[in-house]
Amino acid sequence: MNPGGIAFLSWKHLSHRPMRSLTLVTTIALTLFFPRALQVFISESEDVLQERARSTPLLVGPKGSSIDLTLNSLYFTPQQLPPLTYAAYENLSRQRFGTTIPVHSRFRAEEAPVIGTSLAYFELRELMVVSGRMITRLGDCVIGAQLAARKNLKPGDTITSSPENVFDLAGVYPLRMRITGVLAPNHTADDDAVFVDLKTTWIIEGLAHGHQDLTDPGPPGESGESGKNVVRANASVIEFNEVTDENITSFHFHGEPGAYPLSSAIVVPRNQKQHALALAAYQDKDATAQMVIPLSAVTDLADTLFATQRLALAAFRLLGVAALGLASLVFLLSFRLREREMLTYAKIGASRILVGTLKAVEVTIVVISAMILARVAVSLTRSLASDLLSRFLN
Amino acid sequence: MLRVEEIEFQYPQSDYRLRIDRFVCQAAQATAIVGPSGCGKTTFLNLAAGILHPSRGVISVDGVEISSLGDSMGATFRLARIGLIFQEFELVEHLAVRDNILLPVHLGLRSQRTAIEAEAKRLAEHTGIAGYWRMHPRNLSHGERQRVAICRALSTKPSLVLADEPTGNLDPLNKRKVLDVMITTARERGQCLVVATHDVELLDAFDAVVQFEELNQSRESTTP
Could you tell me which residues are beta bridge partners of residue B85? Predict the structure, then answer.
């Protein structure tokens, strides 16, 4: 037997009809690729979803759906959740369960979520300012890399919060925020967010505002009526829609600070004991807030979401078996059509074993080519999946 | 030398029977077997080549009883020692002329590649197909294809050459030319050449002419 000659004859036949061979190789490659690629996507999706949850040890928020709370606080997806009061947040901070970070994610600007938080959030997420500087006062914001690129924004530009309801004339005014910095990308939801100080979100909420000085003696009747000891404002008082160095001192809060809202609080225990104590503190069924382990919530969500995809995977595998059956049939038909050629080989001096080997080598070349193609495609999918999924899922 | 003694053959589920008491073709001898179409000439050549096996009797080539060799041994023997020229040429369409002629090398005679390739080129020159070396059979005429088949059969320098109507598709001039190449080559190399033909005007070139009806002792003598 001449292995080189057999390989040569097999290759010559395959290359003689390149389209047919390519179709066979592609069909088998796709059959192998689809289930594997779906598996890669499922696995990578779980990883991407869980990665952010893993870096967020505990979350405190209003009672209700733990998944909604997690999605809102970690991925900034808009959710209609009751607020957590600032008093509850302060109470949490006093209990020394670790570092507590406020998150208020109710508002949006240029379709991006506006996140009111503290500087500890940037440390937790390892977010660095790559251009400009960090927020220093009310009305300042830093923005994610993706948002900056998408809207072509840079330090020194401004971004205005979107009113929640344009028909609500009595609603809060949009706030124009000064962009002081752009964050380095971390391929999470942070890349498409606007970060401000928690108090700035309260300005957007309408709980704080700044306006012209009513004691300033302007033209009579223009901004209000003043008696001896009484200052009475009317609708002509100018309210500021942007915090500037000139008007910052005029900004002030109204109402009870303990009732001010936020969406949730991230808790980062320093040790296992603090972790356990924090969880125990929120076991009370009558408590108005709940403590969630984001990883558990995301894992539950992933299990539910990917159950369907696992069914699809099973379907792909069945389809794969059918496609491989079809490919086998193509081979069998092809060999049947080439019976005369095989008979010629046999007449000239090829044994049955040699003719069988010739057929097997041909099938092997096709299958190995398909496996290599599928392997390359799966590797490409794997290298691209993480980035793609980070964009879509965060 | 080809020696056939007291063989019998019958196709399964067919009335056709072949019975030959004795047939001998000596080395360097060119023998023509003549007879009408369907009389069994091709069957006889297939038996002589070891492609078909008789139910009884002995067929030997150079003293080797090929009818008793197994599939693998028989194939190896045929590849090295027997050259076959088929009525329908049996060229492989996806192989170039060169690779069709070198088919025995690809199928197992790798160690003789250089010698076979040199002989193939010489034969291609002699038969006038050297210019088609890299072409595919589909681009050749019937006559050219037949010459490729002849080159393939002779390039391994076999001791027995079995040809089934090798000049059937050639014009008179090329018929004589190709037959001369085959017979001269056979005589020069001491090959035994057996040609099945119904081309009576070429019979004078052969050393012996055998009427197939006389050779076949069976009464039922029409192939299925």
Answer: B163
Question: Which residue is associated with the tokens 């964050």?
Answer: A183
Pairing of strands A112-117, A194-197: parallel
Residue with tokens 């808790």: A267
Closest alpha carbon to B23 in B219, B165, B221, B196: B196
The phi-psi region of residue B39 (left if phi > 0; otherwise alpha if psi is between -120 and 50; otherwise beta) is alpha
CB of B151 closer than 8 Å to CB of B158: no
Residue B100 lies in a domain: yes
Interface ipTM above 0.95: no
CB contact under 8 A, B110 and A4: yes
Nearest CA in chain B to A343: B90
pLDDT at residue A36 tops 50: yes
CB B220 within 8 A of CB B17: yes
Instruction: Inform me whether the pLDDT recorded for B201 exceeds 70.
Output: yes
Measured CA to CA in angstroms, residue B143 lies from A182, B89, B161 at distances of 81, 10, 19
Tell me if B222 is assigned to some domain: no
Tell me how far apart the alpha carbons of residues B14 and A119 are, in angstroms, rounded to a whole number: 97
Confidence category of residue B17, pLDDT binned at 50, 70, 90: confident
Interface check for A16 against chain B (CB to CB < 8 A): the answer is: yes
Q: Which of B76, B86, B107 sits opposite A5 (nearest CB)?
A: B107
User: Would you state the pLDDT for residue A230?
Assistant: 59
User: CA–CA separation, A349 vs B79, rounded Å?
Assistant: 4
Average pLDDT, chain B: 87
The answer to whether A177 and A191 have CB atoms below 8 angstroms apart is no
CA distances to A140, B98, B144 from B131, rounded to whole Å, are: 84, 11, 11
In a domain, B183, yes or no: yes
* Domain CATH number, residue B130: 3.40.50.300
Q: From its phi and psi, is residue A360 left (phi > 0), alpha (psi between -120 and 50) or beta?
A: alpha
Buried b (16+ CB within 10 A) or exposed e, B110-146: eebeeebeebbbebbebbebeebeeebbeebeebbbb
Query: Is the Cβ–Cβ distance between B218 and B43 less than 8 Å?
Result: no
In a domain, B224, yes or no: no
Range of the domain at B7: 2-215
For A84-124, what is each residue's pLDDT tens digit? 999 999 988 998 899 999 999 988 998 899 999 999 999 99
Predicted confidence (pLDDT) per residue in A199-222, tens digit: 999 988 888 777 655 555 554 444
B72 touches A at CB < 8 Å: yes
- How far is B139 from A280, CA to CA, in rounded Å? 87
Residue B208, burial from CB neighbour count under 10 angstroms (0-12, 13-18, 19+): middle
Q: Is A345 on the interface with B (CB under 8 A)?
A: yes
Burial code (b: 16+ CB inside 10 Å, e: under 16) for A242-267 equals ebeeebeebbeeeeeeeebbbbbbbb
Which residues between 77 and 116 in chain B have a beta carbon less than 8 angstroms from any beta carbon of chain A? Answer: 77-80, 82, 84, 86, 90, 92-95, 99, 103-110
Number of domains in chain B: 1
Q: How confident is the model at residue A320 (pLDDT cuts 50, 70, 90)?
A: confident
